[in-house]
Amino acid sequence: MTNSNSLRLWLSCLSLLVYSSFAHASPDDEVRDRIDDFHATLISVMQTNSNFENRFSKLSPVIKKIFDAPNISRISTGKFWRAQEAHSQQEFTNLMFTLITATYADRFVSYNNQVFTIQAVESKGKDRWLVNCLLTKSDGETVTLDYYLREGVIFNVVANGVSDLSLKRADYASILARDGFDGLIAHINQNILEYRQQGMD
Description:
The protein is α+β, with helices and mostly antiparallel strands. The chain has a domain at 21-112 and 163-196. 64% of the residues lie in helices and 18% in strands. It has helices at 3-23, 27-47, 52-66, 69-77, 79-82, 86-107, 164-200; strands at 115-123, 128-136, 142-150, 153-159, 162-163. It has a five-stranded antiparallel beta sheet.
């Protein structure tokens, strides 16, 4: 066998091995990797020790990839969602992305040896997953984080047993009943503004 043929054979075997490793990656491994990547981004952002706007800018594209803002918007507004036209739903979804990004930019400010650990990945049915994690702070305090995913994106985060989606639904229901959809938008915009102002202090 010539050197040229040997090289082609070696490259073919290498390609087959690489393809095989990706082809046999289990769905739970893919979900685990997505959450690991998200946590790595949070750590990286905190390590920059930058201001709110820089943190927001770095987090924004990642949040858009891993959070299911359309379904979070739909579930958190209930029957009011169905009454909105498509363009209003899209505008609200964009606002929800901004709110989620601002929330993480506000809460993950500086790095102090925080550690994220995935404890378990559990299938909850077709294309649904629960990823149980532990955030360990430098003082030893821990926070349990349960990520609920559908089709690879997060639609709910439960921190120490408290569901963010349930909180939004309860909070938004009272605002919607009192002030309508426009009132809710004003409320969310005010929350985002407060996050930005806190980041300037």
